[in-house]
Amino acid sequence: MKITTLFPVLAATALVAFGTPMLAEGTAADPAKGPNVNTAATGTKGAVATMAMAQDLYALGMANKDALTVLTAAKLAASVDVKDVDRKKETKGDAAADQADGVDAPVDAAAMLASAKELAGEDEVLTGLIEDAEAEGSRGRIGGASQTLSRLPAGQTDPWEIPFYGDSYAELAVIGDGDANLDVLVTDENGNTICYDVSWSDKVYCDFVPSWNGYFYVTVQNNGGSRNSYYLVTN
């Protein structure tokens, strides 16, 4: 599945409507302002992008039954130190009836390595590379990412409120477990669309630079037929 990087656009429709929030101390929402994005600013992709890429490579490797691609995905996933954090949300909508539970969480580095080993079969060279990766473990991990797990039933929507600092590179990703399609909308405090994805993927990556300190709203909607356990990952 393709990693999606979406630049500021105005969507004709929104998945859910939000009111104007209270911003961080020292800032204020200005309805006259456009999207809270500095289109001239750039940044260096970090831990969130690495996690998103690892998941996409894993999906590609599994689809092609390619042990080396899956191993590369596992090494990328293992290179990031992700902190589990609690974030408040209030899931909305009615869950679809008679839906499957799905898996409990997206695959991690250990599961990727296990899949790589299975695909490698009796290939001694690949098996040796996988064993080296297992022995290396989490040494040299880079930090800077936080994740929250949500198990979202089909037919329901999760709204998240995420603060980002102005003039600082912001990254976020939604990483699903592959069980169902997830649509994602990211807006600023004025309702302007920052990122929008309605593809059949359940893995979305979004990066931008806010112009000022503010809250951003990430809406994740499960439009599939079963529960999807996904991570919301931010820097």
What can you see in these coordinates?
The chain is of the alpha+beta class and 235 residues long. It has four helices and nine strands. The protein has helices spanning 47-64, 67-78, 109-120, 124-136, and strands spanning 80-84, 142-152, 157-164, 170-175, 182-187, 193-197, 203-208, 214-222, 228-234. The strands form two sheets. It has a five-stranded mixed sheet with strand order 1-2-9-4-7. The protein is globular.
Key structural traits:
single chain; 235 residues; 5-stranded mixed β-sheet; disordered N terminus
pLDDT averaged residue by residue: 86
Separation of termini?
22 Å
Q: Which H/E pattern describes the elements?
A: HHEHHEEEEEEEE
Helix content estimate: 10-25%
Q: Radius of gyration from the CA trace?
A: 19 Å
Class inferred from helices and paired strands? alpha+beta
